[in-house]
From TrEMBL:
Domain of life: Eukaryota
Residues in ISXO2-like transposase domain copies: 49-186
InterPro entries according to UniProt: IS1016-like_transposase (IPR053164), Tnp_ISXO2-like (IPR024445)
Stored Pfam families: DDE_Tnp_IS1595
Protein name per Swiss-Prot or TrEMBL: ISXO2-like transposase domain-containing protein
Signal peptide: none
Length: 213
């Protein structure tokens, strides 16, 4: 329970081992299991698709150089700080990215992207009401329309910080890490409720039978 407490507060494993006087490998193993709980909850209870008419999402992709893979993000601007959907992908081609966009949004959603070629047919997706583009070769904010992908940039910065604190991640662990971050964004809540929310999630996956009187 003490490890769960520190885990839900997003404390580094080094601090957990020091605070609880645990062996580092033991603390790491427990945190991995807790991370798996978050990942399973995201898979079992999807929070997508995002809200439809009037909603705006920002799409972007980032290369994970050490893992030789890409991560694609669809970020909702409905919340502050922003929340998103993040998926590890092998390639950032239209055949991979467009189905993910369609999966993440309801009909009537406006989509903002940069000018990467894979996004050229975004406006053909059934759930897309409008597609607006910012040309990064010239500027990060379109001076004519004000379109930008700042929320996506902020999300990447936050995700990158978490990876640095873990001193890098193996390629096979990337998606579980992003699932954990998504769980924190969508279901964790603030520091005053996140442990209670995590315990509730834990109970969904490991129900305890109530003894018969």
């Amino acid at each position: 329970m003490k490890v769960i407490f520190y885990f839900t507060l997003d404390d580094p494993q080094k601090r957990i081992t020091q605070a609880l006087n645990l062996n580092q490998s033991v603390a790491s193993a427990i945190c991995c299991r807790l991370q798996d709980v978050c990942s399973a909850d995201v898979q079992n209870r999807p929070f997508t698709p995002f809200r439809g008419p009037g909603a705006v999402v920002k799409c972007d992709e980032r290369r994970r150089a050490r893992q030789d893979s890409w991560v694609f993000g669809v970020v909702s601007t409905q919340y502050t700080p922003s929340r998103g959907y993040f998926q590890v992908v092998e390639r950032r081609e239209a055949g991979t990215l467009l189905p993910l966009i369609q999966k993440c949004i309801l009909p009537g959603t406006e989509v903002h992207t940069d000018d990467w070629a894979a996004y050229r047919r975004v406006n053909t997706l059934p759930n897309v009401a409008a597609h607006r583009v910012v040309f990064r070769a010239h500027h990060f904010v379109d001076p004519r329309t004000g379109v930008h992908t700042q929320e996506a940039e902020s999300s990447w910065s936050s995700l990158k910080l978490g990876q640095k604190r873990r001193k890098g991640l193996r390629k096979e662990d990337l998606q579980v890490y992003f699932d954990e971050r998504m769980w924190r964004q969508w279901r964790g809540g603030g520091p005053d409720v996140i442990m209670r929310n995590f315990i509730a999630t834990l109970q969904l996956q490991f129900p305890v039978d109530t003894p018969v009187p």
